[in-house]
Amino acid sequence: MESKHQENGMMSSQRFENPEAAMFSVFKLTVLFLIARIGSVASQGEQVSFTYNGFTGSNLKLDGLAQITSKGLLLLTNTTRQQKGHAFYNDPIHFLYPSSSSSSSGATSVFSFSTTFVFAIIPPYPDLSGHGIAFVIAPTKGLPGALPSQYLGLFNESNVGNSTNHVFAVELDTIQSKEFNDINDNHVGIDINGLTSVASIPVTYLDKNGRSENLSLFSGHAMQVWVNYDGVHKYLNVSIAPIGDPKPAPLLSRSLDLFPVMKETMFVGFSSATGSVLTSHCVLGWSFKVNGQAEDLNLSQLPKLPKRGPKKRSPLMTIGLPVIAVVLVLVSVFGIQSIVKRKRKFAEVLEEWELDYGPHRFKYKDLYMATNGFKQKELLGIGGFGRVYRGVLPSSKIEVAVKKVSHESRQGMKEFVAEIVSIGQLRHRNLVTLLGYCRRKGELLLVYEFMPNGSLDKYLFDPFMPVLDWVQRFRIIRGVASALFYLHEEWEQVVIHRDVKSSNVLLDGEMNARLGDFGLARLYDHGSDPQTTHIVGTLGYLAPELSRTGKANPSTDVFAFGAFILEVACGRRPIEPIASAEDLVLVDRVFSCWSRGMVLDTVDPKLGINYAAKEMELVLELGLLCSNCIPTGRPTMRQVVQYLEGELPLPELSTLSLNVGGVTYVGSDQGFDDFAMSYPSSLGKRSTQSTSVSESILSGGR
């Protein structure tokens, strides 16, 4: 016993006499504890794995339009305008693992993860689609405050691009949004906290023969996507192929550290949104895994996509049709006459050259049914060249505006239709989309996207309409400026609108501006000169040089834009025939007040004091700058956009030139009175003496 006590005493003495050994023991215990903790967290990440071959009974959180059909198909959106849909895995997932430092709460890297899913985007037309779909990792199950259309249900105007979003997404985008620098209207992009992709690429794949083929995201057919992130080497790969094809080489690869994006726990899922075109976004199956390869989907178990197009005829109908044809031959004379009369009613002119414009040509019968026979109750308005009717296409249920245009000249019809089809290819968020046309005898019908809130001039001048506040007006001005910049410089040809005014600016469901009525538009190639033509447009918006040269160019559109923005800011038409002599021409009144330092006296009285003074002064002075009677003194629409966005300071107006009766005055407070009164046309009416084919297209009859 005594020796034992002595031994214990010696050991105790050794512990106190060798502090280095004691500290080493504590260090070993700490390392073992951290290894056990890391292994525990890693095992938590490895346990997150799920596979859905169809979504019946799935553990998903849905919001917006998202729903799961009875057959297990996940519909993120349906044919509803300006809506969004989200579907997220219901449980949070740990993406970060702790560092090996003494701090147990620190983290240095992101777990590797892998996912694959099968999706389909079903548009109403082969070459016209809504917005795309995105695989997303976010800190919440939903994305509150996110907007539809170009925002894909991920962000909104105020938070897009903010680092506090902590959102990672792989977008499959089918609309080219210039504001987010999209490369085209069919691409895959990697998004970090915003919609300006850090990397993107057009969608292609290698076929069985090793040839690169374009792959349309909105073909309506199912496609499979693979997304793999290597957390060790910090690398992301995205692959895509038609369903049933083996996984190809990565289409998009990117060195990417997701650590700044990730929080301790995140949610994975999908987001999609609709715009003005009714498009359905579907997900058929989904597999996901952390720290490993996602399990392959069983393609044979995936739900079927909704049927497209007309239903197959039954054998009974196929056999019965010849019998029905024989019976029709034997009907009475009255029946035969009725059939002939009906055929004449819906008769169309279809020449061989029109076959090239197949997708853009509508059947007269469909437009007749869409507008209830062009009934008076469907009439939206009457413009300079025809009447505009509201309609709903019978097959797609798309709401449209149909304009009936008289075109008696057979000569030039081919060029006329070719120009319509060219304008129909314009795609911009601030332009009214021309969907197509129909030709019948001497009549043309143009089919446009429907704008539910009508034209801007009603809100400016109709006392029974709600008053637009300044925020709405300034957004409308910027929208029209962006549209004209696109027409002048960003499209494949230069498009001169030649009739910019408030009645040709339409408002969509969210009161966004859409420039419409390309009835007087002219197209020519970049780098070439426009041809001389007769003066067309609306008095008060016509640039003074048109009376001498007859050449419409981007500068004449800028002049009209100047009159337009003064109209919006002041709530007055460019020319008021019943006004006093000093107030007859709006630009003269604004210039006179500006020269006396009282430019804000011209503001629309309906606004009161509820406007941003700096923005208002910018718009009024920009209107004067665009109204310069010297074309070279006017800015380009690119510069106009930069002024409105605050990217460039507005130049001095000391050399501003106004035109009075053909005489130029620099710094004068006189105006355009003599110039305006010299026209033979009545005030406010459009001059239409043009030889251009396109000048017979519709004017904005809203």
Question: Could you characterize what this model shows?
Answer:
The protein is an alpha+beta fold and 702 residues long. It folds into 3 domains: 45-298, Jelly Rolls; 325-449, 2-Layer Sandwich (Phosphorylase Kinase, domain 1); 456-696, Transferase(Phosphotransferase), domain 1. It contains 14 helices and 33 strands. The strands form 9 sheets. Strands 1, 3, 4, 9, 16, 17, 18 and 20 form an 8-stranded antiparallel beta sheet that branches. Strands 2, 5, 6, 10, 11, 12, 13 and 19 form an 8-stranded antiparallel beta sheet that branches. Strand 24 (434-440) and strand 25 form a beta hairpin. Helix 8 packs antiparallel against helix 13 (637-644). The radius of gyration is 33 Å and the shape is globular.
Which key phrases capture this entry?
single chain; 702 residues; alpha+beta; Jelly Rolls; Phosphorylase Kinase, domain 1; Transferase(Phosphotransferase), domain 1; 3 domains; eight-stranded antiparallel sheet; 33 strands; globular; disordered C terminus
What is the compact description of this entry?
By secondary structure, the chain is α+β, with helices and mostly antiparallel strands. Helix 8 (470-490) packs antiparallel against helix 10 (554-570), helix 10 (554-570) runs antiparallel to helix 12 (613-626) and helix 11 packs across helix 12. The chain is globular.
